[in-house]
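Database export, one record per block. Field names are fixed; values are copied verbatim from the stored entry.
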Amino acid sequence: MKMNNHILKLVATDLDGTFLKNDQSISDENLKILHSLGDKGITRVVATGRNLKKTMQVIAPDVPFDYIVFSSGAGVYDWKHEKLIYHQNLSKLAVQQIADFLVALDLNFHLFKPVPENHQCWFHRGSEPCSEFESYFDFHQSYSEPLPLNRQIESEACQFLVVFPNNPEKFIEFKLEVEQRFPEVKVVRTSSPLETGYIWMEIFHQSVSKGNGVKFVCDSLKIDHEHTLGIGNDYNDLDLLEFTNFSYLVANGPLELKERFLLARSNEENAFAKAVEKHI
């Protein structure tokens, strides 16, 4: 039975921990609902923290999405027509200033090149060993190069990724400092996908968010907010879930977020399909 009288026109879903199973596969039930949405003329959107290259590693060309909001909203890709339709990078000045700031603090970080080449990055290794940084570096090193020796980057960039200890209070304190020092940016918290307990601090242009990426799609298609549904599993989905009208958090999401949104099953139990079928 439908939960509301609103006609659903757009559905947006996070990938990892939400639409995808833990082994990064797509369940038959989720795929069936995705096709059903298309049959009903409902726009289907991925909203992911993955860059476009990594998204394509788990979403085959024949999976029937319409748009990909990637890198947490730094880019929007028309899936059917294979075309980049929106991007937002950090300015050259902000990139240089933030890089100098993080190097001076001796932090471990990656700096991702401008969209759409943001699967490539620079890295800086601080003097204090960090197993989380090394694990990510080992995974990503084929696309990585060290910051120039003179640290003159002279380029826009998509985002910074700073490996942060699992200390939420310190994270919030540092987030406020970064956003006050650099008004162009916003700081996003993401749980480590390596499941090590570290917090990943992502620094984007202030207008970048999954919610704004989905809003761009809605504005382009003249879809009103009240006709949207979103589903996610983590802190970097907050802007998405605060934008969509019907917003679901999966059972495997953080406990502190569950009282703020509608609750869905876990990603291992077809959360996407079970949430969407209530509205179509």
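Remark 1: The chain has nine helices and 14 strands.
Remark 2: The CA atoms of residues 34 and 182 lie 40 Å apart.
End of record.
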